[in-house]
Write a structure and sequence with these properties.
The chain has 94 residues and is mainly alpha-helical. The chain is 70% helix and 0% strand. It has a domain of 60 residues. The termini are far apart. The model has no long low-confidence stretch (mean pLDDT 84).
């Protein structure tokens, strides 16, 4: 008795398998796309919030600069008006 393997392909079962595989692949693909889109939306929101924080910090910095420029802070001149004889740099070099 010899063993023979006859492959019998039923076209109806083959067609149902192909359709089921296509539907499963389509569903998995849609799920992956939805996951990627939600991740992109989350990252975009995070980026926008960081931009808002940066703009708020810049706005506060500009307001602080404006406030400091508006105040008149007295400045005392540090220049010494003396003759060349009193210049300590020239005495050290002689």
């Amino acid at each position: 008795m010899s063993f023979t393997l006859d492959v019998i392909i039923n076209p109806v079962i083959l067609l149902v398998g192909i359709i089921a595989g296509a539907i499963a692949g389509f569903g998995i693909g849609r799920k992956k796309i939805a996951k990627v889109r939600s991740k992109i939306a989350k990252l975009e929101n995070e980026l926008m919030s960081s931009h808002v924080e940066t703009l708020e910090a810049q706005r506060a910095y500009v307001a602080l600069e404006r406030r400091l420029n508006d105040e008149s802070i007295p400045v005392i001149s540090m220049k010494i008006n003396g003759s060349k004889e009193n210049n300590p740099k020239e005495k050290a070099s002689k």
